[in-house]
UniProtKB/TrEMBL annotation:
Membrane topology of the entry: Peripheral membrane protein
Domain ABC transporter: 4-234
GO molecular function: ATP binding
Compartments where located: Cell inner membrane
Family: Belongs to the ABC transporter superfamily.
Source organism, top-level taxon: Bacteria
Keyword Cell inner membrane: yes
Keyword Cell inner membrane part of the UniProt annotation: yes
Record-given protein name: Sn-glycerol-3-phosphate ABC transporter ATP-binding protein UgpC
Keywords, comma-separated and alphabetical: ATP-binding, Cell inner membrane, Cell membrane, Membrane, Nucleotide-binding, Transport
Length: 238
């Protein structure tokens, strides 16, 4: 686990700056929801935390280390996206263990970690299935399992449930909450569903046009939104 520190982070694509100097301290073990309208910079910010983007200005510090100075393995960050590309020819267990195998982890250790993650995500009975034999929700759980087995320092989620139907989304939301209560990994969760943000997050960050409008607990934002934009987004009567 690790804390995450954004220090006056900016991102420009060519001449166009899309993240305008974002600063934020995320505590070790905290669950942050990052919300805001389409195009406001949520995915860009997430990729910057993951060390997948050149940072135009400022820095991202994870567990005391500047992220872009670390190798991907040293960063130990897991990302879960909405399109969870599983390998179709591999079983659930093989999908979950594949990255560990690439990293040279011993077979017995891989089996142990996969079994543990499968237990947490209720995938124990499905380990020998192929992705084509799974439902959408089960596939998303495998994608999460693949991330969990690496025991990441930080979990980044980019709208992981947006491809699922409403009923499944609610069920998966509960699973993510339970999972965080069990493993307590520092998490940044991008969503445009304010109910998802309200239920999951310790604190919500409201992003608008590459700037932070407000950071606060769900209750803070609901009771005392900083402005009309936040009030409109959170859906409070202000
Ligand atoms: P969100 O995830 O909140 O919908 P993004 O982070 O994807 O927003 O995008 C933020 C802004 O940056 C948008 O205006 C988008 O068009 C722009 N953008 C994102 N990626 C690139 C890129 N590779 N090149 C140029 N512009 C980009
Ligand atoms: Mg996005």
């Amino acid at each position: 686990m690790a804390s995450v520190e954004l220090k006056d982070v900016r991102k420009a694509y060519g001449a166009l700056e899309v993240i305008h100097g974002v600063s934020l301290s995320i505590a070790d073990g905290e669950f942050i929801a990052l919300v805001g309208p389409s195009g406001c910079g949520k995915s860009t910010l997430l990729r910057m935390i993951a060390g997948l983007e050149d940072i135009s200005h400022g820095e991202v510090v994870i567990g005391g280390n500047v992220v872009n100075a670390l190798t991907p393995r040293e960063r130990n960050i897991a990302m879960v996206f909405q399109s969870y590309a599983l390998y179709p020819h591999m079983t659930v267990a093989e999908n979950m263990g594949f990255n560990l195998k690439l990293s040279g982890v011993a077979k017995a250790d891989i089996e142990k970690r996969v079994a543990e993650a499968a237990r947490m995500l209720a995938l124990g009975d499905l380990l020998d299935r192929k992705p084509s034999q799974l439902s959408g929700g089960q596939r998303q759980r495998v994608a999460m399992g693949r991330a969990i087995v690496r025991d990441p320092a930080v979990f980044l989620f980019d709208e992981p449930l947006s491809n699922l139907d409403a009923k499944l989304r609610v069920a998966m939301r509960t699973e993510i909450k339970t999972l965080h209560q069990k493993v307590g990994t520092t998490s940044v969760y991008v969503t445009h569903d304010q109910i998802e943000a309200m239920t999951l997050a310790d604190r919500i960050v409201v992003l608008n046009g590459g700037n932070i409008e407000q950071v606060g607990t769900p209750l803070d934002l609901y009771r005392t939104p900083a402005n009309l934009f936040v009030a409109g987004f959170i859906g409070s009567p202000a």
